[in-house]
Amino acid sequence: MGKKKKVNPEDLIIPPQDQKICCTVFICQMILILSTVSIVYLTVAIYVPSSKAFSSGISETPVMCTTTRLVNIETCDWGSCGEWCLSKTSGACQQIWVNLRRNGSNIILNNCTSSANKTCYGIDQENAKKARCILDECKNLTGTFNCSAGSCINITDAFDCEFHNTDPALKCSGRRGKITCIDIQGLFSCTRGSCRRIRSPYNCDRRCLDIPTRNKNAIILSGDKVYLSNCASATDMNTTKEIWNESQENVLMASCYRIQNTSAGIEAVDCINGSTLEKDALTDLTNFTYLSYLHVFVSKPNREIAPPDYDLTIFNHSRLMINLEGCVNTLMDECNKFIKEYGKDGTDHNARARFPCFYAENDPGTVVARFSLAIVEKHFYIGFFLPVSLMIVSCFTICICQRTVVVGDDAKMRFKACGETESILPHGGPGGSADGIPLLQEDSPSHQVGVFSLH
């Protein structure tokens, strides 16, 4: 086989130079369009929120919030968290209300021994097994149940409920049982499918037993957790002043946000409601309900250990939002996680959510869970300079192409510096006419074919 004849680049359907120029212009136009669209989108997603954050007056020093109420609203003008900022509506949403206060004291417990931790779990409403009455799963219910829209959760093992009055019994068993109990709502006491709604007032306490209090002189409550130890002294971490020691022959009690064991001792962060309790008030074992009762009603308040929460209160009823916009754009189901973590208002008899938050002194009625000017500045600079730079570079490149690229008589694009630009085809000369049109020779194959066709 003979060698394949090399084709002159100028004779290709799309010459290399023409293809490169087309690709360059196409890419620059696409970058220009995408940059313009992104600037329009980022105006709503980044530029406006950043401007609002810079002028909000919110301090980057966090304070503390405690959730007081989670409300589901059918038609609302604000929500604690929305999944897509561009599609925020005035429809149904969830609102979280919090108590806003200054930070409590930070204390360190020194030379502690015989430490113990106890976590008092309540009912996980999300993962708990539910009996759905519409599926005839309520016909054998026995115990105390928390029901919502016909779905009931057994709380007998987790809570001890005391009540006096109930409504008439609903029979959830039998032929019409699932119809009778299809939409039951509230707290029910059931016996073999016969359920009576518990009427207010009632009291449900967590069954958290066998908390070891023997030889313990420091008890720290932190949400659903209890930390107990036998310590020599307690020191204020900010002033290094000793605020309690074992020679006082009593028990230190406080409610703290976080407890951690360090090389320096047991550190308790954001402690409030400090108090002391007489040792004879404790036995070898106790339960969570009685321990909480002792802390609130029996122990003696001690401001040196930790200030009471009412002394630190800034605002009693503030609305909580995930950020200044009350929405996120990640589309990663962040809002459900946010509501689950921050929406614990104690209605399920578990501990209320307690967390750092941020607010502006001129507007304590609104607080945000996330706020960082450094992150806002970073997002603003990236979101502004990147698309603007790409847009400028692409515009500049297109302008250069417009001034330097020409289309020849053969409809091929070339840079002016790469060859003759006035006319690509020859004007006259060998084999050509005066008008630049090539002439056919008589002995050429094309001419012979033409002559043959005439005959």
Automatic annotation (TrEMBL):
InterPro entries: TipE (IPR031578)
Entry superkingdom: Eukaryota
GO biological process: regulation of sodium ion transport
Gene Ontology molecular function, alphabetical: sodium channel regulator activity
Record bears the keyword Transmembrane: yes
Keyword Transmembrane helix: yes
Record GO cellular component, one term: plasma membrane
Transmembrane segments: 21-48, 380-406
Keywords, sorted A to Z: Membrane, Transmembrane, Transmembrane helix
Protein name stated in the entry: CSON006832 protein
Species this chain originates from: Culicoides sonorensis
Gene expressing this chain: CSON006832
